[in-house]
Amino acid sequence: MVKFTEKQQRFIDEYLVDLNATQAAIRAGYSERTASAQASRLLTNVNIRARIEELKKTRADRLNLDAYWVLKRLMDISDRAMQAEPVMEWDHSEQQLVPSGEYQFDSSGANRSTELIGKHLGMFKETVKHEGEVNVTFIDDIGGGKDGP
């Protein structure tokens, strides 16, 4: 097993708290001024990254969390958010809340959970369109340059 410095191990432990690398670096004792750069450097360390993934997997296994569990929860949230809830209003004559005849539902909760399910299933492909010219300079053996096409 790879040995980590005390600060690296604290960073790993702190990162697992909230997955916020900059804050984890600060809590681990790195300077606030350089925490973002330090966090980026730490997360590119293959051994640190592997240890974080190993601990995340162990935690998920211990809690019996997997893609099925997440998708089931998202489906439940979407279904619940789509249920029409009656809008209640105060009836002065009856001195109680009564249905107004209108209904509401949590469209943002339904949309977000459905979007996450769709992303998991690969239904939304992000595409990037590049336009413009690319100029390339070729350097010959003598050290001079000539413009490419």
From TrEMBL:
- Keywords (A to Z) from UniProt: Viral genome packaging, Viral release from host cell
Q: Is DNA-binding a UniProt keyword of this protein?
A: no
Q: Which domain of life is it from?
A: Bacteria
Q: Is Endoplasmic reticulum tagged as a keyword?
A: no
InterPro entries linked: SPP1-like_terminase (IPR052404), Terminase_Gp1_N_sf (IPR038713), Terminase_ssu (IPR005335)
Q: List each coiled-coil range.
A: none
- In Swiss-Prot or TrEMBL terms, this protein is called Terminase small subunit
Question: Per the UniProt entry, what species is this protein from, by scientific name?
Answer: Planococcus wigleyi
